[in-house]
Amino acid sequence: MRNLLRTGLIAAVALSSSLVAGSAQATPPGPGVKGTVISQTTIGDKDYILREITIPPGQSTGWHYHDGTLYGFVKQGTLSHFDSTCEPDGVYKAGSTITEMSGSDHVHIGRNLGTTPLVLDVLYVLPHGAPFSADAPNPGCDFQ
């Protein structure tokens, strides 16, 4: 019983330490940001995934990058897109398209600075089995 309690306590401390460490560096999406998979297929070693992403007013995607190229279409609202220099690399209104390049050297954040929900349709072209995105630390910008 004593060993079981000790093992449980060690596991709890390890888990809480990893959660704290992960939270300090990652910049997850803001509250209410949602992504819904519309369709998905794999051809060869590539996954093609179409998602609809909704970002409420005042929220963001969090800093991140992708292991593959993304092609987006702004259905509603305005996307303010920033790169790792903290400078905007584009403002995309409804009807606009955007391409996001792959790799950890393309860290970026998408923000909804408007007053209406931002709705994006995004085609992910990823290596088979790759996650949609990888969280990245804020590169030193005064916003999230």
Features:
alpha+beta; Jelly Rolls; 5-stranded antiparallel beta sheet; 10 strands; disordered N terminus; RmlC-like_jellyroll
Q: How would you portray this structure in words?
A:
This is Cupin domain-containing protein. It comes from Streptomyces spongiae. With 144 residues, the chain is of the alpha+beta class. The chain has one domain: Jelly Rolls, CATH 2.60.120. The protein contains 1 helix and 10 strands, in the order αββββββββββ. A 5-stranded antiparallel sheet has the order 1-2-9-4-7, with no helix packed on it. Strand 5 and strand 6 form a beta hairpin. Residues 1-25 have low confidence and may be disordered.
Domain count, please report it. Answer: 1
User: What is the SS-derived class?
Assistant: alpha+beta
Q: Let me know the number of strands.
A: 10
**Any idea what the CATH architecture is?**
Sandwich
Strand order of the largest sheet: 1-2-9-4-7
Structure summarized in a few sentences:
With 144 residues, the protein is of the alpha+beta class. Helices cover 17% and strands 43% of the residues. The protein has one helix at 2-25, and strands at residues 34-43, 46-55, 64-65, 69-76, 78-83, 88-93, 97-100, 108-111, 118-127, 134-135.
